[in-house]
Amino acid sequence: MATGLERSRLDEAARASEALCTGTFTAWLIDLQSGEEWDHLGTTRGAAASVIKIPILIELYARAEAGDVDLDETVRLREEDVVGGAGVLFELHRGLELTLRDLGVLMTVVSDNTASNLLIDRLGMGAINERMKKIGMADSVLGRKFMIDPDALHAMNFTTAKDMAICLARLHRGELLSSKGTEEVVGILKRQQYREKIPLLLPETVPVAHKTGEISNTRHDTALVLLDDHPYALACLTWGVADVLAADRAIAELSRSVYDHMTAVRV
Prior knowledge:
Elements: H1 7-21, E1 24-31, E2 37-40, E3 46-47, H2 53-65, E4 74-76, E5 97-99, H3 100-109, H4 113-123, H5 125-135, E6 158-159, H6 161-172, H7 179-190, E7 208-215, E8 218-225, E9 232-239, H8 244-264
Antiparallel strand pairs: 1-2, 1-9, 3-6, 4-5, 7-8, 8-9
Helix pairs in contact: 1-8, 2-3, 2-4, 2-5, 3-4
């Protein structure tokens, strides 16, 4: 039975996924039992896509716990707020009232871009960036709202696999929110509806709290895989991929390799 992370096996699995991905493939793994870490090009920085919505959700709940916002506060959907891309709010009637909690759920489980932008407006982009610094996400930045001037190179959203894994690990450890807030945020992440990456090849009984991200030639997934006896955080980010479905499969294959390894590891 393996003890500790066997890096050569994980390296081999990452190389196989990188070949399948046909683009830049990065990963960062944190064993939440031992604290041991492994990565494959995990400090490579690139477009964050929707995985950066995780720290926005954490900022929402942290501010609610501080008494700065009320999760039951309502926001009215206006025509000028509506953007396309992922989500459902653009299909619904203008004038609809949603709570901040509703917006957080929609931002996460269906990656709704309109909900995300409404939360950015309410919380403040500067505050979200400051939260990421406090978390330890040193190479992450929220530079613009979603689906707003997506070709603007002067204001982009960036992150790394390392930053995303650190964020999820600290969330799991209860270092970012109260126990109640942690439970609620992790519960929202468990309800993620896009499951074609990290959860795809795992047993259906394994709880996965995660957030995906997709833009052109970019496919990401960042997850807490909540094994009862050996939970871990895994972030897989890809850029410049020629075949996005192959990139999804590459993430799923690495995820399965990590799962097989972690279920064999004993510390």
